[in-house]
Write a structure and sequence with these properties.
Shape: elongated
Order of helices and strands: HHHHHHHH
Structural class: mainly alpha
Distance between the termini: 67 Å
Helix content: over 70%
Number of strands: 0
Radius of gyration: 18 Å
């Protein structure tokens, strides 16, 4: 094994170890810094690490957003949006409503999520509810 491969292997191990030892909050914070710096591939990894620990609604929301924007995979994105919405994340509720309405045409289910987001003061959800009347 060449010296470069050995160094790459050691750095990869260290990076993997550091990702495992972060708390969900730390992982989310690292993901945010990476996103803001434009490193979206790495940001997604840290959001996923935090989101899968079940205690970071914003990591779940951001991961869902990344999944949908990057791959168009609404089914996978919906899984994380639902986790964040279950924790009361108003933007997850809004996006779920939007996707449910526009992808499935289910006004009744979409209205439920719009109402939940609107109750938290989400102005976009309020606008949508007013337009659906």
């Amino acid at each position: 094994m060449s010296i470069i491969k050995k160094i790459f292997f050691i750095v990869s191990l260290l990076m993997s170890y550091s990702m495992v030892t972060y708390s969900a909050e730390d992982s989310y914070d690292v993901g945010e810094r990476l996103r803001k710096s434009g490193n979206l591939v790495e940001a997604e990894k840290y959001y996923k690490l935090a989101a899968d620990r079940e205690d970071s609604e914003w990591a779940q929301y951001n991961l869902a957003y990344f999944i949908y924007q990057k791959n168009g995979d609404l089914e996978k994105a919906e899984e994380y949006y639902k986790k964040a919405a279950a924790k009361g994340n108003e933007w997850a509720e809004y996006n779920l409503a939007y996707y449910i309405y526009h992808q499935n045409g289910s006004l009744q289910k979409a209205r439920e999520y719009y109402e939940r987001a609107a109750e938290k003061g989400n102005q976009e959800a309020i606008k949508m509810l007013n337009s659906l009347k």
